[in-house]
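Reopening this one. Same input as before:
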Amino acid sequence: MRIKCQSDGSIFESQKAYTNKILKKFNLAEAKGVSTPASRKESHNHKDVSGMVPYLEAVGILMYLAAATRPEIAFTVNSAARVMDRPAEKD
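Same output, byte for byte:
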């Protein structure tokens, strides 16, 4: 975690290096960012990806990141955690 104290007394914390490390670990470093990372609408047509992604590890890492410095991803991470026993990819 990087913590930077500003001259006006404010504090800025960041986990950019940690986030980049996570993206590289899961081969997502080249993934495109989006302004709205998830939809509340769920699809029921899913393809099993349990053998392709270390899903439990990824969700655990993202839960830490959301709790520590990225609360804006908490909804999406929570949605992923709800289906940890059956990871899938939307068709």
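So the earlier flakiness isn't reproducible anymore. For the record, Residues 55-68 form the longest helix (14 residues).
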